[in-house]
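Structure ticket #2291
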Amino acid sequence: MTEHVACTGAVNAVKEVWEKRIQKHSDDLKREKQFQLKLVRIWEERVSFTKLKEKVTREDGRVILKIEKEEWKTLPSSLLKLTQLQEWQLHRTGLLKIPEFIGRFQNLIVLDLSRNAISEIPRGIGLLTGLQELILSYNKIKMVPKELSNCVSLEKLELAVNRDICDLPHELSNLLKLTHLDLSMNHFTTIPAAVLSMPSLEWLDMGSNRLEQLPDTIGRMQSLHTLWLQRNEIACLPETICNMRNLGTLVLSNNRLQEIPACMAGMASLRFVNFRDNPLKLEVTLPPSQSADDEEDRELFGLQFMHTYIQESQERAGIFGVCHGQILIIYKYRYGSGNLKVIS
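Resolution: structure written out below.
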């Protein structure tokens, strides 16, 4: 009995020794594999960094990282060795994500990552207080973080053709230097309140969205000189649009407008308008041009069309008569037929 117990103890001791040796060997192999993977990562980082350095150029005194049509789905952390960069231009690289460490590039003036596959803007973007231009058009962004409002030097923001952006945080009204904003080809149903409150905004493109109407408060956009609203679903214009005293270009083609506000005839700064492809109630024929060159240059649904339309609209609606103490207003429509409306 004693011999059996001793034998069992010896077997267990040998087994324990071997298990320890097997475990140690397994741990050694795991550490070796991790070390090899680390070496591979270090090597890949070095190779990537070498490639990145080759893409750095100087133009007009700026240090620029420029990559076009090369696959860079992610950007390596070794990029932090190039924090002197003032401009990124990465187009058609398949980039999936703006790196979280973007906020450490304090010298950035221009960040142009258009035509990639970026799905979100990191909150760290707000650390770039010297950034003047942010161009993220043709990506897959769905929302804009409120931290972007901390980019107090921002003058140009382009978010066109992201398809699914439908609103902006109200904090963006704090972008006091923003003059250029492109929100075309997204999912907006109204002009965001933040946009209406941007004091320096001069150029706005909200074409190819789902706008159904313009807010009455649009008249307070006093700095705006160019407004693109083509390819929406706008059915009428508010009278307050006439308060936009600096508006020089207004594009409203491919909407659902039936009338043009008469007050627009008094918009002295307006130099170019486009009302093409709207179901306007009146069919207006422009007077003949004095020369063939004038006829060729004339915009058929432009400024002259607008003034002619307003004039004819007022004339057709302004034929008064008195009958039995009541005012009769005769409305003549596009085919010359008339209807009588009695107003007591």
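Closing remark: Residues 56-283 form a domain with the Leucine-rich repeat, LRR (right-handed beta-alpha superhelix) fold (CATH 3.80.10.10).
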